[in-house]
Amino acid sequence: MKKRNSNGDFVKEFVRNRKQLGTPFQSSKYLAKAVAKQVVGYNIVELGAGAGPVTKAILNELKEEAVRLTAFENNPRLLEHLIQIEDSRLTIIGESAENFQDYIQDFDCIVSGLPLTSMPKNVVHSILNASKEAQRYIQYKYFPEGDLLKQYFSSVKSRVVFRNIPPLTIVYICENH
């Protein structure tokens, strides 16, 4: 069976459902690495894993066998790419991110690539409210989102990643002290 191009599938899925993906481009390896370097703890949850560039970077960055990464992606075409990542530390759940607490209750860090601005407000509230329990919540966005995140976290720091498409990607690192 011929391996499909995840970039091509990502663009096709964006055209089909812009609100679900938020951008026509996958995260670059530079963005993925910048996000992965901010991850803390042993039980990590990834919301909106897509075809897996950030997933791979997290697994590469966190070498310990004790680390567990649970990745959520509900787009069937992107899920096909995600399940090709072979790593015993990875659990993939093909469900909506809004239900992540139905599957995992103990988590240290949440990484989200979800397009919060295009999601229903009640879903965003549910996800961010549940995420307050984590040591750290990391959100990468293409548009400023700091004010929303400050409603849920006492500390919101950001950094910009230029080597990505679009080039001004903001990585938010959120914590409650």
Structural description of this entry:
This protein is of the alpha/beta class. It has one domain: 3-Layer(aba) Sandwich (Rossmann fold), CATH 3.40.50.150. Helices cover 31% and strands 21% of the residues. It has helices spanning 6-16, 18-21, 29-36, 53-61, 76-82, 121-131, 146-150; strands spanning 43-47, 68-72, 90-93, 109-112, 136-141, 155-161, 169-175. A seven-stranded mixed sheet has the order 3-2-1-4-5-7-6. Helix 3 crosses helix 4 (53-61).
Can you lay out the helices and strands and say which pair or pack?
Layout: H1 6-16, H2 18-21, H3 29-36, E1 43-47, H4 53-61, E2 68-72, H5 76-82, E3 90-93, E4 109-112, H6 121-131, E5 136-141, H7 146-150, E6 155-161, E7 169-175
Parallel strand pairs: 1-2, 1-4, 2-3, 4-5
Antiparallel strand pairs: 5-7, 6-7
Helix pairs in contact: 3-4
